[in-house]
Amino acid sequence: MKQPEKEKREARMDGATLVPNSGRGFRKGDAVLDDWLIDYKHNSKTFSITTKNWRKHKKDAWNEGRKDPVYKVVLDDEVKVAVIDWEHFLDYKKMLEEQND
């Protein structure tokens, strides 16, 4: 399956809206879901994150209406991982703790 078709399929499954002409013009990221700008990464085994590519994705997300960046790494059709800022992880952890109190 071609890369854009994989992105379309993932966005549809996520309930996200594809970004028109993503990465080829002024619009960045692959899809938007609520306040998140998603960049889909399809790799069969691994995906490397560098400081440079994370900072670029954060800047692109900010420029797309102050969205928060997230990578959705699709290692195969069953293993899918989200990469988010640590502060968002801590917010999520705190929310879960408050629900359990």
Considering DSSP H and I runs of 4 or more, what fraction of the residues is helical?
Answer: 25-40%
Decide which structural class fits the backbone.
alpha+beta
CATH architecture: 3-Layer(aba) Sandwich
Our count of domains comes out at 1
Number of strands: 5
**Order of strands in the sheet with most strands:** 1-2-3-4-5
Contiguous runs where pLDDT drops below 50 for at least 5 residues: none
Instruction: Assign the CATH class.
Output: Alpha Beta
How far apart the termini lie comes to 46 Å
SSE pattern, N- to C-terminal? HEEEHEEH
Largest sheet: 5 strands, mixed
Kindly identify the CATH topology. Trna Endonuclease, Chain: A, domain 1
Strand content: 15-25%
Write a structural description:
The protein has 101 residues and is an alpha+beta fold. The protein has a single domain, classed as Trna Endonuclease, Chain: A, domain 1 (3-Layer(aba) Sandwich). It has 3 helices and 5 strands. It has a 5-stranded mixed sheet with strand order 1-2-3-4-5. It is globular, with a radius of gyration of 14 Å.
